[in-house]
Amino acid sequence: MSVYTPVTDADASALLEHYTLGELELLEGIAQGIENSNFFLTTTTGRYVLTLFESVPREDLPFYMGLMDHLATHDILCPAPMKRDDGAFVGELNGKAAAIVTRLEGEPHMHPDADDCRATGRILAAMHVASIEYDAGLANAKGQEWREHFAQVAAPRLSRAENDLIASENRYQAMHDDSVLPQSIIHGDLFRDNVLWGEQGGGVIDFYFACDDVLLYDLAITANDWCVTREAALDPARAKALIAGYETLRPLTELERELWPVMLRRAALRTWLGRIGYNHFPRDSHMTIPKDHEFSRRLLVHHIEHARELQESAA
Ligand SMILES: Nc1ncnc2c1ncn2[C@@H]1O[C@H](COP(=O)(O)OP(=O)(O)OP(=O)(O)O)[C@@H](O)[C@H]1O
Ligand SMILES: N[C@@H](CCO)C(=O)O
To answer: Which residues form the Aminoglycoside phosphotransferase domain (predicted)?
Structure first.
C-alpha cells in the first residue's frame, strides 16, 4: 500500500470484537503496495493483515475473498480470509470496507534468478489449475475498454510521442482475438513483491487484480516483472525458466506460443498506463512508495522492437 485511511489501536480493537481472533497486541501501517490501506495486525491468536479497501468496488469483494478462500483450501499458499462472527469476510472500519486475512511468512525475492522464475511459473500454473473449480467470475476492469478510456483521460498529461505510442498499441491489441486462447481466472498482478518466500516456498498475496481473462496474459504480466533486465529488456533465460515451470502443470498450446509477444506487449501497456495513473493522478496517502512508469514505457518499446526474441523465449 500505503496508508490512506489511518487506523488507531482502539479502531482495530473494536473491529476485532466482531471476530474470534483474540485481543490486539500490535498494529503497524505498511508502506508497500499502492491500491489499499494495509496494516500488520498481531493478536493473541496469531499474525494477520488488515486491509481497508480504498478503490476496489465493494460489490467485487466477495469474488476476491471467495477466491482466496478457495485457493487457500486447494493447496495454494496464500492469505486465508477470516470470517467475522456474522459469517461475512468483509466488514467496515472508518467508512471503508475492511477484511482480515492470515499473514504469510517470508520476503519477496527482488533479484530473482532462473530458479526463482521456474518456481514462480509453477505457482502461477497451480493457481490457474486450482481456480478452474472456483464458481464465481469477474470481468477484467483493466481490459481493452479501460486501456482506451484511460488513454483519453491521461492524454493531456502526456507528450505527443507517448500518446501516439499508446494509441498505436491500443489499435494493435484490438486487432487480436482473445477468444482463441484458454481463459479462466487470472491473478493479474503476480509481480515480485506479491510472492513472499518462506520455509514452505512461495506464498502469493494481493488478489485485487484477479478476474476472468486470458491465462497467457497472466503469464506475460508475470514475465514482465520477473524476467526483465534493469535496461527494460526481456531476459530470455529467466523467461524460458518461468515458462518451463508453468508448463510442468499446464503446457501451452501452439496458439499461445504464437501470441506470447502480443500478450507481453499488452501486459507492458497495462502496467505503463496503471503507473501513469499512480503518478499523474495520485491519491492522498500517508505512506506510499512510487512506481517507475518510464521503465514500463521502455519495456513496451523493447517488446515492440524485439518480436522475434520474444517469440523464441516461448519456443
Ligand atoms: N497476507 C499477507 N501476508 C504478509 N504480508 C502481506 C500480506 N498482505 C499484504 N502484505 C504486505 O503488505 C504489502 C502491501 O500489500 P498489497 O500488495 O496487497 O497492497 P495493495 O496496496 O493492495 O497492492 P498493490 O501491490 O496492488 O499496490 C505487501 O507488499 C506485503 O509486504
Ligand atoms: N504491480 C503494479 C501495481 C499494482 O497495484 C505495478 O507495479 O505497477
So the answer is: 28-252
Q: Are residues 170 and 224 in the same domain?
A: yes
Report phi then psi at 154, rounded to 5: -85, -15
The CATH number for 250's domain is: 3.90.1200.10
Cα 126 to ligand 1 centroid, rounded to whole Å: 21
The total domain count for the chain is 2
User: Distance, CA 194 to ligand 1 centroid (Å)?
Assistant: 7
DSSP 223-235: HHHHSB-TTS-B-
Same domain, 141 and 38: no
> CB of 101 closer than 6 A to ligand 1?
yes
Domain CATH number, residue 25: 3.30.200.20
- Mutating to test ligand 1, I would choose from 205, 222, 285 the residue with most ligand atoms within 8 A of its C-beta, which is 205
261 contact partners, CB below 8 Å, separation of at least 6: 303, 307, 310, 311
Q: What are phi and psi of 25, to 5 degrees?
A: -110, -40
- In a domain? residue 1: no
The average confidence (pLDDT) of the chain is 95
ipTM of the complex: 0.95
3, part of any domain: no
Report the pLDDT value the prediction gives residue 291, as an integer from 0 to 100: 81
Structure confidence by residue, pLDDT tens digits, 153-190: 999 999 999 999 999 999 999 999 888 999 999 999 99
